[in-house]
Specification:
CATH topology of one domain: Rossmann fold
Shape: globular
Number of strands: 21
Strand content: 15-25%
CATH superfamily of one domain: Nitrogenase molybdenum iron protein domain
Structural class: alpha/beta
Radius of gyration: 23 Å
CATH architecture of one domain: 3-Layer(aba) Sandwich
CATH class of one domain: Alpha Beta
Largest sheet: 5 strands, parallel
Strand order of the largest sheet: 11-10-9-12-13
């Protein structure tokens, strides 16, 4: 009976909290750091003195507790925090730990291909971080060797998670990749912060990102003219074009430009060259992100697909380019949308940034 009333009291407390924010309470003699979710759509937070409920998407529910004996509501997986060890499946996830200065918590990753971070590479070399294999081909022995408290997974990948479930380790989806708002993706810093006990740092870092991003966005919103921009290139006979509600399309708009695809599709589709040409032929700019050995040039772009030279942006030398073999794009861009935005504004509206601005990710192809 006492247990029943205890759980009932907890439910009342949780119901009184806002759906998207964690209110101040007491835990182990100290106040919780308030977590407010403003932009991200993939997770919500509710809080009381003893338990923090984190809902990820519609299917996954976690109760973060500091006391392993704390009672949690039915349907929630208990996670004692702060966690001390984890495995990251993607660069996006790893970027959250990097910006929070929390590489010590990372004990496993999938690969070091195109990895730039010297600290992570050193930890792999000295055995502090193990490589568990790629999606669909995980080595469970190495997973167990990493001894993670939880594993952050990316459901969009090829999977292989069923075999990991057999280890009994809690799998926590990280849905940052699904966010359509650049600030929404960056806000997953707070998500990781809750698991590793760095809520305060996460809040402070995100507040800086948010402030810089919105200041730049406000400046770009006042421009007199907005150029048009297309994105992507031909691969294996098709041109993958992101949809009009995609993260990338949004950051183009925030930078004072208009993406050539205006439909409501989020992920986009693979299009034949002729269809993409009809959309892109007269675009003022053309954005390309790829991995190219050596220096990427207009000659190389034409060699990949001779018809590329038909596009206005090619003719007028207005291709916006980033080479992932030379830039840690996915390692740091998810937590630096303000920097990405400034790179694009510097191209679309150079008068809005300082004259000596040095881009981090994108620049006009020479």
């Amino acid at each position: 009976m006492k247990k029943f009333f205890g759980l009932l009291a907890m439910a009342v407390l949780l119901a009184a909290c806002g759906n998207n924010s964690a209110k101040n309470g007491n835990a182990e003699g100290g106040a919780h750091e308030t977590i407010t979710v403003k932009y991200a759509k993939g997770f919500t937070v509710r809080d009381s003195a003893d338990v923090r409920l984190v809902d990820v998407g519609k299917k996954d529910h976690f109760a973060l507790v500091k006391d392993a004996n704390a009672a949690v509501p039915e349907g929630y997986t208990k996670v004692t925090v702060p966690i001390k060890s984890t495995i990251c499946m993607t660069s996006l996830q790893l970027s959250n730990f990097t910006i929070l200065d929390a590489h010590d918590v990372v004990k496993g990753i999938t690969s070091t291909k195109n990895l730039f971070d010297e600290d992570i590479k050193a930890r792999v070399k000295n055995g502090k971080i193990v490589k568990i294999g790629m999606e669909g081909e995980f080595d469970n022995e190495l997973v167990m060797a990493a001894n993670p408290d939880v594993i952050f997974i990316s459901p969009s990948k090829r999977g292989g998670y069923e075999s990991i479930k057999e280890t009994g380790i809690t799998l926590v989806p990280h849905l940052g990749y699904k966010e359509l708002d650049p600030l929404g993706q960056a806000e997953w810093i707070k998500f990781i912060g809750m698991f590793i006990g760095k809520e305060k740092e996460a809040n402070e870092i995100f507040a800086g990102i948010e402030s810089r991003y919105n200041d730049l966005k406000e400046k770009a919103a006042k421009v007199a003219s907005r150029p048009t921009v297309t994105s992507g290139e031909m691969h294996y006979g098709n041109w993958h074009a992101v949809g009009g509600k995609n993260y990338l399309a949004q950051i183009f708009r925030d930078a004072g430009a208009d993406y050539v695809i205006t439909d409501d599709e989020e992920s986009g589709e693979d299009l034949e060259f002729e269809k993409m040409y009809a959309l892109s032929a007269n675009a003022d700019y053309w954005r390309i992100l790829n991995s190219f050995d050596g220096e990427f040039t207009y000659e190389a772009l034409k060699a990949k697909e001779p018809r590329n030279e038909m596009l206005k942006a090619f003719k007028e030398k207005k291709v916006i380019y980033c080479n992932m073999k030379q830039t840690p794009y996915y390692e740091i861009e998810p937590v630096k949308p303000d920097v990405l935005l400034k790179d694009l504004i510097a191209i679309f509206h150079p008068e809005l940034v300082e004259k000596d601005y040095t881009p981090t990710f994108y620049r006009l192809l020479k």
